[in-house]
Amino acid sequence: MKRAWTLLTVFPAAVALLAACGAGTAERSEGAAAGQGVERLRVQVEQELPHDETSFTQGLEFSGDTLYEGTGRNGQSKIMAGPAGQEPEVSKDLPDELFGEGITVTDSRVWQLTWTSGIAIERDPKTLDERRRVHYDGEGWGLCDQGGRLVMSDGSATLTFRDAETFEPTGTVDVTEGGEPVEELNELECVGDDVYANVWQSDDIVRIDPGTGHVTARIDASGLLTDEEASSADVLNGIAAYPDSDHFLITGKLWPKMFRVTFVPAG
After folding, report:
1. The domain 38-265 belongs to what CATH superfamily?
2. What is the pTM of this model?
C-alpha cells in the first residue's frame, strides 16, 4: 500500500510538470513563429561616395536630391545639407553644450534631436536657421517622418510616435524579434509603412513594422570598410532612402565613405 500511495502522490506532480513543460514548449513555439517572418538580407554595394571622416554621423535623410546630415559630439555638432558626396551647400553649428542626434525633414521643417539635453530644434529646411526649441523627456537618438507622424528612438527597444508640428508624444510601440526586445535602436529611416533602424554597436539594420513593433527583416551591413578604414572609424550609423528608388545611402560615425546600396537576400 505504501508504494501505491507514493505513485498516487507523485502522479499529480508529474502531470503538473508535463503541463509546465508543454506550456514552455508552446511559448517557445510562439516565439519561433513570431520570428519566422524575419527576412535575412545583406547590403549589395552599387556605388561608393566620399564622406567627411570628421563627421560623427547621427542622422541622414534625403529630401528630393538634397541630403541632410546631422552630427554629434559637444562642440562639434552640426547639421548640413547639399548633394550626396559633395561639399554641403549650407551648414549650421549647434551650441557647444548641445550634442546633436537624429534629424528628419518634413514638408515645412527640419527637426533635430539632442542626446541628453531633452531639446528638439525646429529648423527652416532651406536655410537650416533655428526657429524654435521644444522639450521632451529622456534621451534623443534617431528620428524619421512617417507621413506627418514622427518616429523617435531613445536607445531602448521602444519607439515613440510624435506629432510632426508640436512634437508632442502620441504613442509608443515596443520592438521585438522572435518575442525578444531589440535594444539600442539608433538612427531611423521611415520608408512607406516601414521603419529602418541602425542597431547601435553592430553592423545590423532592422526593418520594423511600426504597427506591431515586429522586426520583419535583419540586414547585414558588415564588411563595407577596409581594415585600415575601420581602425579609425566608429560604428555604422546613418541610413537614407533614395526617393522613388529601392536604393539606400548608408554610412557611419567618422566613416570616410558612404555607400549606395540595395538590400538582397543574405543567401
Report:
1. TolB, C-terminal domain (2.120.10.30)
2. 0.85
